[in-house]
Description:
Helix content is 39%, strand content 23%. By secondary structure, the protein is of the alpha+beta class.
Amino acid sequence: MPLLNRRADLIGLLVLGPRLSEEPYSRDDRRLLASVAGQAGLVLESLMLAEEMVERIDAERRAAQEVAIAGEVQRRLLPQKAVAMATVECAGGCRQARTVGGDYYDFLDLGPGQLGLVLGDVSGKGLYAALLMVNLQANLRSLSARAAGDLVSVLKSVNRSFCESTAGNHFATLFVGHYDDCTRRLRYANCGHCPPVLLRAGGDVERLPVTGNAVGMFDPWTCEVRELDLEPGDVLAIFSDGVTDAMNASGEEFGEAKLLAALRACRTAPASTVLDAVMTAVLEFSAREQHDDLTLVVARCH
């Protein structure tokens, strides 16, 4: 007798030998056996579905644990403290929209009195973006010894490696700055990233514009390095688009104006306090509904 599921698909057979009485199966016998087979088919289908559900739940739990571990590793790769400088103090933070993400920031020790400021945003979401972010971070750290002398050459190497890793399917916007503690000069390259804002001590605002394409888009590739001097009381904010693009329930974006207002409100406070105040302002504005990673680096001159 066939065992059928609810869609009438064959999932098994009920097989019987001869009756003990050696009498042939009657019509009533067949009708009874068909009823038993029908009930058995439904029970068997339920058991199969239950087993599939248990296996799926177990697989999802293992996957969730692996993603959680990846997220913890990714967070530990972020700098735990900034490089100590005499004329500037820095603080950075990254709040990911998911367990793992494609944003990151870094403080690079480029030698005595030399500081590297990095903020990157890899296209895409999830584990793949996170893996590309780790690759980008590792490349920059491995080449950081050359950054102070030839920033363009370093970024060309980073772009080439990123292109090879992604086959041109992904890109990353990237801001890299080199700060000299003695001269107070910041040399920077903005590779397709949101222009950082520099709030001068006197209240003026300057933006650090794009100086080249995002990395991973073209090979060969180049960018321009620009310079500016930082003065006591200046506050530099380097951020990902998740900060200014954060939206409230009405569809209004946080925007640069609110970012500048948050910076002005606590510009004389330590860099870590400024960082916390801006991140809190963004989260409160968006009712803590994150659609993108929030990454911010604050450098305050003194």
